[in-house]
Design goal:
alpha+beta, SH3 type barrels, 25% strand
């Protein structure tokens, strides 16, 4: 890749070459940028949306604010989730579904408790 960039830059600096000679190098850079950044972000976003769709009662979650809780209720039509954040006092909070960062798996819960 560096050789390709160097070739394109040398051709552009040479003065005898056409400005279009750098076009293949720019196209390759744009394709790589797409695959490394844009495509990976869209896959990550799709996985997060799928996780939110499959959210159900009694799932242990962490919000984007770092609050841990257990899902007490999911409202599909209001895009709202009720979290139980304190088991002893039965304290609950309502949050937007999009405020959930991740669902905590059972093996993660065991490592947190020990």
């Amino acid at each position: 890749m560096n050789a390709l960039l160097a070739t394109g830059l040398l051709a552009a600096e040479g003065g005898g070459g056409s400005p279009l000679s750098i076009l293949p190098a720019l196209l390759i850079i744009m394709v790589l940028f797409y695959f490394f950044f844009i495509r990976s972000e869209s896959k990550k976003r799709a996985r997060h949306e799928e996780m939110l769709k499959q959210l159900k009662k009694n799932d242990r979650v962490m919000t984007i604010g770092g609050i841990y809780g257990t899902v007490a209720g999911v409202s599909q039509d209001k895009d709202e989730v009720v979290l139980r954040v304190d088991e002893n006092n039965n304290t609950k909070i309502r949050i937007s579904r999009n405020a959930i960062a991740r669902v905590i798996q059972e093996d993660e819960q065991e490592s947190e408790n020990s």
